[in-house]
Amino acid sequence: MNTSGDRLKALLLECNLTPSDFAAQRSVTPQHVNNWFKRGVPLARLDEIADLFCVHRHWLRSGEGAKHPSPILRPCMPKPPPPPLQHGYDGPQVSIAMHGLQDGTLAEQAQGQLRLPVQALEALGVLPEDALCLHMPGANMAPLIPMDATLAIDRSLTRVIDGQIYALLHDGQLRVHSLSLGQNGTLCLHSHDRRNYAAERYTTAQRQAQGLQILGWVFWWSWFSRQRPG
After folding, report:
1. For 20-49, how does the pLDDT look when each residue is reduced to its tens digit (9 = 90+)?
2. Which residue among 82, 83, 93, 187 has the highest number of C-beta atoms inside a 10 angstrom radius?
C-alpha cells in the first residue's frame, strides 16, 4: 500500500464496509470516496477518518509508524489479582457466581462459583455484588486469554476506557474484546489475535439495532493448561 487512499480502501475491507456505505456515513458522494482512493485522503479529512477507524493519523497519511494507538496494541489492563491460594491476599474471601447465556441473556448457573479475596476486590474498587464470572467464549483474545478461561467482570464499570477488556452481549451472543471509542461514539472492538480477527466498528445506531451491550470490565481471569507438554 503506497498511498493513504490504498490504506483507506484496506480499512474499509477490514470492516466489511462498501465505499458507497462509507460515503453515505461521511455525507459525501461515492465519487468523492473513489477520488480519495486514487489521490489519497484529503488532509482536512485525515483526523476524522483516522479517529473513525482507530488508527494513527501519521500511519494513515504516510504508512509509517504504528497503525493503532498504543493503548490498543498494549492493553493497559492492571495486573490481575492472584488466585486465592497464592500469597499476597490473606483474610476473608467472597463467592462470585458463575453465569452463562440462557435464551440470549445472562443467567446465574445452578452450579459453579469462584472464590476471590475480599481484599483484592477492594483494591480494585469492585463490589462483590457487582461481580460475576463467565467462561471466555472464543479464541479471539488468545494467547492473552485462552478460550474457556474463567473470567470475572465488574458489572458497574461499563464506561469505555481505551485498551481495557470488556465482556459484551451482541445479538444474544457473549463476546470479549478490548474496546476503544472513535468519532461520534463509534465503538471499536479489538482482538488480541489481530492476525485472525479484524477490528470491528459499530455506530450508536448499529449498537442499538444489533443489541450490542457492554456487560462489564474484565478484571480477572484464570486458566489451567489442558495437558502437560511433551
Report:
1. 878 887 778 889 889 999 999 988 888 888
2. 187
**Which of 37, 55, 36 has the alpha carbon at shortest distance from 183?**
55
CA angle 9, 7, 214 (to 5 degrees): 80
**What stretch of H or E contains 44?**
helix 43-52
Distance (Å) of CA 128 to CA 107, 134, 217: 17, 15, 14
Residue from 119, 138, 151 nearest 192 by CA = 138
Cell numbers found for residue 68: 493503532
Over range 105-124, report the average pLDDT: 88
Pairing of strands 150-154, 213-222: antiparallel
Q: Which residue has the cell 492472584?
A: 82
Q: Are 53 and 12 in contact (CB under 8 A)?
A: no
Are 114 and 181 contacting, i.e. CB atoms less than 8 angstroms apart? no
Crossing angle between the packed helical segments 30-39 and 4-14, to the nearest 10 degrees: 130
pLDDT top residue among 93 and 12? 93
What span, in angstroms and rounded, lies between the C-alpha atoms of 128 and 122?
9
What proportion of the chain, given as a percentage, has pLDDT over 70? 90
For the chain, how many structural domains are there in total? 2
Give the model's pLDDT for residue 87.
41
Show which of 12, 38, 70 is a domain's final residue.
70
CATH of the domain at 169: 2.10.109.10
